[in-house]
Amino acid sequence: MTNAAPILILLLLAITFLYSSFEKLTDWNGTMTWLQSHFANTFVVKYLKICLILVLVMEIITGVFCVSGIIELALKPTSKIAWYAAVFSCLTLLALLFGQRIAKDYDGARTLVIYFIPAVVLVYWL
């Protein structure tokens, strides 16, 4: 299968974003509590609920595109949906990275770059 590598990266990203959004939805209060302490000394704390909703929507859209891209790549040699999934993954990761930098969580920001690299590779491949 010529699309094995892109499918594996899409699977990595789908798991990442869909599970993250699942956690946010099933433990909304816990997530909000943690984020309030994480962003306590930043301007973001005032807008935390809207920021969380935005990130949640981005993660769900990205995860759905990733799963749809996997299906399309399994059936066809190319996939526009998979390319959108890769681009949305990059945008979502950049939004999360921006938040980590605002919070001065440099280890968290560095961790996001680990996900960003395969997402950019995927944009290039597709």
UniProtKB/TrEMBL annotation:
The chain crosses the membrane at residues 47-74, 81-102, 108-125. Keywords: Membrane, Transmembrane, Transmembrane helix. The keyword Transmembrane applies. It comes from the Bacteria. This is DoxX family protein. It comes from Flavobacterium tibetense.
